[in-house]
Amino acid sequence: MKINRRDFFKKAGQGAIVLAVPAIASSILESCNNNITNPTSNSASLANVNGTYANGIVKLTVNSSSPLSKTGTAAMVNFPNGQLLVDHPSANTFNALSAVCTHAGCLITNFDSGSSQFVCPCHGSRYDVNGNVVSGPAPSPLQKYQAQFASDTLTVNVG
Ligand code: FES
After folding, report:
1. Where are the domains of the chain?
2. Substitution candidate for ligand 1 out of 33, 122, 133, 135 with most atoms within 8 A of CB
3. Which residues have CB under 8 Å from 24's CB, separation 6+?
4. Residue 36: beta bridge partners?
């Protein structure tokens, strides 16, 4: 079969695409895998706490036996509709954040108590206790919810 100049360039173009796609995919994966060798270094799994849910409100007890009783602590709060990250930065003050990483949707399960950062186990993104990204690949902060503490009860409005 004879190939003309037009067919030659058409086939050459297809070959270039075949070669370029794996290179681009590899580059994207590389950027996601910055910390993949040990994404949870210097962190530990969060303690789990159960909460209740009704009408967009999550409630949990924080008393002296709770993993959240001391300042500087954090926990994963499980409730029927999902999970929240909760931390206790100072007396009677709590932050409540979405537990879903903004990079690729993994559940954030770890906390580095030394730096007070939440750590995603998938690719190592780190967030401060207000949900701001400290290091990526996460592109944006975690959603923060309004939290109020009174009479040993933390109330979080998750909408
Ligand atoms: S899903 Fe990739 S860092 Fe969290």
Report:
1. 1-32, 44-157
2. 122
3. none
4. none
